[in-house]
């Protein structure tokens, strides 16, 4: 069975990597200053952060329509027998359900939708591994089993540098945001049961980052081979410094750098830093 992999834009897989592994991408959208942009298509992360510095109204985001999925699946059905469609957590977006619904509406290709239960480069790792297996001719069921293995070993933690976007987006009360800012609290977030929830509240940015590195160390110190990604919201140089430092400390970990694009950064804000890792 000839299988193709689809993921959505919130995996933030660079275009050249998607092309290398023949991964199809369906974009989510952001509404910014009254205009709708498809992230990774019409709007880059860099452009988004520049716009946000101008102090515009907080953008909103939206998932791809079922019709957009149908069009994509029907096009792929001309060349492939099956599609594995891997998407950000169903607990924070209806994108996965859109893929499920569209899969029931097409006859030319068999659709296997997969809920990553996470987002960003963790989701990207899933898509890349799936694409490698598809290129080897693995059946969709085998690929699904591998994705479940990866999911079981996946860890991801995010530090929010500025609480204002969470507050403006309704994820945090005004009082919590004010108190958190006064106390310089940097909340660590993670995914539990498909949604983003607080992990710990830490007083300073430095301590919050060190806590993430300590959590990585708990797994990396076991000596097992891991792959990890440092994810940043317009803090590329800082991410590169962390990559250099951590690569020297943990030679058994294959580090890469990714980013929070417009849809996710709408809620996390500029300056957020995260890390995800899983078994290699």
Written overview of the protein:
The chain is an alpha/beta fold. It has 2 domains: 116 residues, 3-Layer(aba) Sandwich (Rossmann fold), CATH 3.40.50.10170; 125 residues, Hypothetical Protein Tm841, Chain: A,domain 3, CATH 3.30.1180.10. Helices cover 41% and strands 26% of the residues. It contains 11 helices and 13 strands. The strands form 3 sheets. Strands 10-9-8-13-11-12 form a 6-stranded mixed β-sheet, sandwiched between helices. Strand 11, helix 10 and strand 12 form a beta-alpha-beta unit. The chain is globular and about 55 Å long. The protein starts with a strand and ends with a strand.
How are the SSEs placed, and which strands pair?
Layout lengths: L2 E6 L6 H7 L1 E4 L2 E4 L2 E4 L6 H8 L7 E3 L3 H11 L5 E6 L7 H9 L6 E6 L4 H16 L4 H14 L1 E5 L4 H5 L5 H9 L3 E7 L2 E8 L2 H16 L5 E7 L3 H14 L3 E7 L2 H7 L4 E7 L1
Parallel strand pairs: 1-2, 1-6, 6-7, 11-12
Antiparallel strand pairs: 3-4, 3-5, 8-9, 8-13, 9-10, 11-13
Helix pairs in contact: 3-4, 5-6
Keywords: Lipid-binding
Protein name: DegV family protein
InterPro entries: DegV, DegV_C, DegV_domain_contain
């Amino acid at each position: 069975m000839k299988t193709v992999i689809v993921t959505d834009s919130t995996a933030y897989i660079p275009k050249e990597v998607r092309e290398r592994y023949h991964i199809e991408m369906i974009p989510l959208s952001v509404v910014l200053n009254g205009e709708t942009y498809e992230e990774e298509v019409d709007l880059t992360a860099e452009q988004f952060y520049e716009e946000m510095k101008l102090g515009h109204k907080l953008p909103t985001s939206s998932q791809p329509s079922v019709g957009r999925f149908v069009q994509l699946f029907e096009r792929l059905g001309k060349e492939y027998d099956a599609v594995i469609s891997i998407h950000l957590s169903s607990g924070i977006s209806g994108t996965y359900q859109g893929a499920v619904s569209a899969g029931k509406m097409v006859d030319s290709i068999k659709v296997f939708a997969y809920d990553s239960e996470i987002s960003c480069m963790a989701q990207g790792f899933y898509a890349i591994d799936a694409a490698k297996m598809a290129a080897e001719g693995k059946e969709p069921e085998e690929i699904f089993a591998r994705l479940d293995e990866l999911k079981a070993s996946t860890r991801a933690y995010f530090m929010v540098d500025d609480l204002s976007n969470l507050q403006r987006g309704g994820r945090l009360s005004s009082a919590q945001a004010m108190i958190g800012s006064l106390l310089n609290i940097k909340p660590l977030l993670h995914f539990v049961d498909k949604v983003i929830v607080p992990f710990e509240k830490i007083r300073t940015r430095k301590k919050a980052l060190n806590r993430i590195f300590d959590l990585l160390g708990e797994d990396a110190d076991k000596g097992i081979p891991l792959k990890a990604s440092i994810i940043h919201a317009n803090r590329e140089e800082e991410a590169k410094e962390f990559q250099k430092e951590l690569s020297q400390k943990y030679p058994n970990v294959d580090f890469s750098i990714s980013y929070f694009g417009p849809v996710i950064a709408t809620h996390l804000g500029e300056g957020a830093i995260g890390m995800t890792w899983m078994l290699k």
